Amino acid sequence: MAVPGDDAYQESVYKSLKPLLFSLAYRMLGSVMDAEDVVQESFMALERTGSDHIANVRAYLCKTVTNRCLNLLQSSAKKRELYQGPWLPEPLIGEPGRTPEADDPLQSYVHKESLATAYMLLLQQLSYVERAVFLLREVLQYDYDEIADIVGKSSVNCRQIYHRAKRSLGSRASEARGEVPPADSAAAAPARLVEQFVHALANADVDRLMHLLSADTALTMDGGGKVTALPRTVVGSKRIAVFMATMPDVLPPDAAFHLAEVNGLPGVVVQSQGQTIGVASFDYAGGRIAAIYIVVNPDKLRHVALMQGGHS
User: Fold this and answer.
1) pLDDT digit string, tens, across residues 210-227
2) Which residues does the UniProt record annotate as the domain RNA polymerase sigma factor 70 region 4 type (predicted)?
3) What domain range is 286 assigned to?
4) Over residues 202-214, mean pLDDT
5) pLDDT band for position 55 (cuts 50, 70, 90)
6) CATH code at 268?
7) Which one of 54, 82, 110 terminates a domain?
8) What distance lies between CA 279 and its chain's CA centroid?
């Protein structure tokens, strides 16, 4: 039996708590790579401190991760203000049809709650402390005394912060979790919509693209000033369809579209010459695509592994 302080215990703690801690850090930061770094650094801090005298290792690590996230957000606030064009979170990629619980405990945990891009963007509207309190309460189900100890505020204050954050998000939070259509509505299922979208895109079929989009669909691209991208969000099915129909001429000749799970919902990964050059995630409503989010900033795509096959 593993006991605090030995290697088997440390390994057990790492395997059981890493998914939870990554989920918290990713929602706080909107960055896969930064979240992984924060979690790794927090485990290293635990190893240096020693776990044998820590009463609640889970609470200790959640506090360490939260504080490291808050420090990182504060130190990078100016960088975010100077970010060129719209900002989107780094995409979190899974494989369509895969059962994450079977082979990846990280994926098993993070998919229990929505990670939809629209929901992640709503979280970004909260202040750093509001985001921490909201996630600790809403996602990790911590009580207010535990949250108070983690963020260094009174439990009464944390309760007020949580309710204020919840009101701020309002009904938009539930709307941004992604639509799950009835099982018999195969034609309107998100995965089918994305597949049809890719085919229409590859054929530059403006009419078909318009049919798949809601009238007020919004398209947001994140190039970060590193590559060419739309400088602001574009709204309207016709404008977006006409723009998207030009993409085959702009993309490299060998560009391949891979259907993938992006932030917990069906999406697309675009790759060329051994590199990921774009990732698209979507929102769905009424059997159509309600929003398109495309990350083309190469700095945000370095963690996306190459995929086999695909639609070209």
Assistant:
1) 999 999 999 999 999 999
2) 119-169
3) 186-300
4) 95
5) confident
6) 3.10.450.50
7) 82
8) 12
CATH of residue 30's domain is 1.10.1740
Question: How many Å apart are CA 286 and CA 278, to the nearest integer?
Answer: 26
3-state secondary structure the chain: CCCCCCHHHHHHHHHHHHHHHHHHHHHHHCCHHHHHHHHHHHHHHHHHHCCCCCCCHHHHHHHHHHHHHHHHHHHCHHHHHCCCCCCCCCCCEECCCCCHHHHCHHHHHHCCCCCCHHHHHHHHCCCHHHHHHHHHHHCCCCCHHHHHHHHCCCHHHHHHHHHHHHHHHCCHHHHCCCCCCCCCCHHHCHHHHHHHHHHHHHCCCHHHHHHHEEEEEEEEEECCCCCCCCCCCEECHHHHHHHHHCHHHHCCCCCEEEEEEECCEEEEEEEECCEEEEEEEEEEECCEEEEEEEECCHHHCCCCCCCCCCEC
CA separation for the pair 275, 258 (Å, rounded):
13
In a domain, 146, yes or no: no
Mean residue pLDDT across the chain? 85
Return d(Cα 118, Cα 250) in angstroms, integer.
27
Partners of 93 in the β-ladder: 262
Is 118 part of a structural domain of the chain?
A: no
Q: How far is CA 284 from the centre of its chain?
A: 16
- Altogether, the residues listed in the chain come to a count of 312
Residue 308 corresponds to which tokens in the numbers above?
A: 């086999």
pTM to 2 decimal places: 0.85
> What's the pLDDT tens digit per position in 246-285?
998 999 999 999 999 999 889 999 999 999 999 999 999 8
Name residue 176's amino acid. A
Whether 234 is covered by a domain: the verdict is: yes
How many structural domains is the chain composed of? 2
